[in-house]
Amino acid sequence: MTERERFIRALKRQPIEGHCPTFELVFYLTLEAIGRIHPSHLRYDQWKQMSPREQQLQINYQADTYIETAEKYHHSAIFVHPNPYDFENTVRLLEAIREKSGDKYYLTMHGDCTFSIPDGNGMMAFSERMYEDAEGLKKDARKMLENSVRFAERLSKHPGLLDGFTLCADYCFNVNPFFSPAQFGEFVAPYLERVIKEYHDMGYYAVKHTDGNIMPILDQMVQCGPDALHSLDPQGGVDLAQVKRLYGDRVALCGNVNCGLLQTGTEEEVVADTRRALRDGMNGWGFIFCTSNCAYTGLPLERYELMNRVWWEEGVY
Fold this sequence. Notes:
seven-stranded parallel β-sheet, single chain, alpha/beta, globular, TIM Barrel
């Protein structure tokens, strides 16, 4: 069984032998871990001035970075962040990864079209629009949906490159969602459900990510039909075991080692929390092990590697 096959079986909530699959939305610690700058941190302000050969060398560099990271930490999936982000170079990067690694890894990339929490500069204006310009917001939502579907349709004409999309619009703070359940049902859920269906109809899987306290809107998220939910954030009060009991027969789960403990906890706390996530998640299949966010810049590499080592030794069916 390849890592890709292992990952897909987890998305389908099917039995797996051997290791529970693992991956990260982003593993930014590549410079320290494998001596390579993460593709998202590369500057491409002179990309159009590069010769075709220079551009291909950069594409190959990105592909090698993703593959070496996955190999070192036994990841089953690679979340690809094309840089520069346009359709042509996205295809080139996916082709390079497939050429170098074959079908070993499940390949995914960002594909969310829904509203997320607005930044501080736009939060008040967005909140006002939900009350004063609801139809205008919905028009914007339809446009974002159309753009995402159009991109996926173009990519589907290159079969075998991408396995699925990961939808990374954040809806929640640690204490509660930005959207009330009624607002979520009006401005987000219909478009989330539609884009997931469109992806499924094209043969793609769909993993939905959001941090924070998702519990007030969790039922709506599950009803939208994603194959998996990520990241089931313990810092947002989300209990993996509870979500597993409530929805484990309907959706796969990804997570949820506490990133706060990885950053500032003791080694004993990291080990204990890793074991908790494995115990609560692996029960009954349909689980993909990872952090509750990502391996972000500034996270101590030794803490990630401690977590990864515990998974390697104990996260086995």
